Amino acid sequence: MQSPHNNMNKLLTDADLCVKCGLCLPHCPTYTKTQNENESPRGRIALIQAWAGGHLAASKKLLEHVDNCLLCRACERVCPAVMPYGRLINNFREQMAADRGSTLAVSLLKTVSHSKAAGRLAQSGLKFYQTTRLQKAARLLRLPSLLRLAKVERLLPDYRERQALAAYYPATAKIKGSVGLFTGCLGTLLDYETVTSAIKVLTAAGFNVAIPAQQGCCGALALHAGDTETARQLAAGNCSAFAYNKLDAIVSIASGCGSQLQEYQQAEFAGKVTDISQFLIKSSCDFSARLSPLAASVCLHTPCSLKNVMREEHGALELLQQTPGIKLTPLPVSVQCCGSAGSYMLDHPQMAEALLGDLLALALERQPEYLLSSNIGCALHIAAGLRERGIKLEVLHPIVLIARQLRH
Ligand code: SF4
Ligand code: SF4
Fold first, then answer.
1. Ligand 2 centroid to residue 261 C-alpha, Å
2. 102/17: higher pLDDT
3. How many angstroms does the Cα of residue 337 sit away from the middle of ligand 2?
C-alpha cells in the first residue's frame, strides 16, 4: 500500500505538468455546458493541486467539481503537455473514496458487475421481470421511481432468449490466428447479440475464439469510484483467466471496457487488447465480397473511450465501408461525450440528459435508419433517450450490422 505522502507527491507531480494554457477548455463537455472554470479540466487540476499542496480543504464543493467530470478524457487528447488527466482524477478519487457514498442504482450496478453469482441472478431476474407481468405491474405502481431505480429500469434492453456461451469457437475459414473475446461482466447480460455477432465475424475471418468463463468485470467502475484495490483484484483475475501468451489479441466489444484493459499494469496483457473493428481492419480482413448489400443510412457514433483513450476510432468506419450500398453518416470526431460515462448517467442524470440531447439532435439531423456505437454504455443510454422521445431507431454495435449482412 502507498503511503499518504507518496500519494500526495504523485498527485502534485501529475498536476504540475499542466501549464494552464486552457487549450482543453472548449473540448470539455462540463465546461461547455456551465462556462464555469471549476468545471473545466484546468480548474479541476488547480483544485486538486491546491488540496494536495495543503492550501485547500477537501470541501463538499471541491468533491462535487471533481465528481462532475465524466472522465471522457477529451482534454487529455488535445493537451500539448500530455497531462495524464485520467490518472490524476483516479488517484484523487482513491484518496477521497472513504468520504463518498453511492446511490442505490450505482451500488446495484457495481454488485452485478463485480460478482458472477449476482450477474447470474440478475440474468434470471431480468428474464422473469420482462417475460411475466411483473414489469407492467411495477410501472403501474411507479415502483422504479419510488425506489429511485427508474434510470436503471429505462436502460434495460428487451430480454432475448440466449444460450450459454462455449469456451471455444473454432475458425470457420482458413486459419489466421487465435483471439480471446472479452465479454466482461455485463456483456452477455445486456448485449448478447453483440457477443454472438463478434463470434460469427471473427470465426468467419479465420480466427479461433476463446471465451474464458473465469473472466469478469474490467474494473472501470471500481477505479473511477476510487476503489483501486477492487480494480487491481479484477485486473489480476482477468489476466489469469486469459492464456494471453498463446493469443494474437484480446478483442474488446465495448470500448469502455477495452480502454480500461489497455491501461492494466500487466503490460503484456494490456498490449494485446484491441477494439474488434480495429483488429479486423489491422488483420487485413476484407468482407466486401461476402456482405449482402444494405441500402440504408447509418449514423456512426464514436465513443470517447474509443477515440480519446484507445485511439482506435478508424476501424469501425473502415469496416462498415466494406458493406455494399451503405450510406454512412458518421458523427464528427469532435462531438462531445453522450453523457453515459459508466455510472455517470445514473448519478448525474441532468448533465447526462443535456449532453444526450445535443448528441441526438446531431444524429437525427442525418436521418439515420440505424445508429451504431462501439460501447454498450453509450448504446444503452442513447437507446433509452430515443425510447423516451418516442423515436423508433435501432441502436447497434457496428459488428452486429456486419454479422447480419455476412453471408455464410
Ligand atoms: S491543455 Fe493541458 S496543459 Fe493546457 S490547461 Fe488543459 S490540461 Fe493544462
Ligand atoms: S475528462 Fe472530459 S469532462 Fe472531465 S475535465 Fe476532461 S474533458 Fe472535461
1. 20
2. 17
3. 9
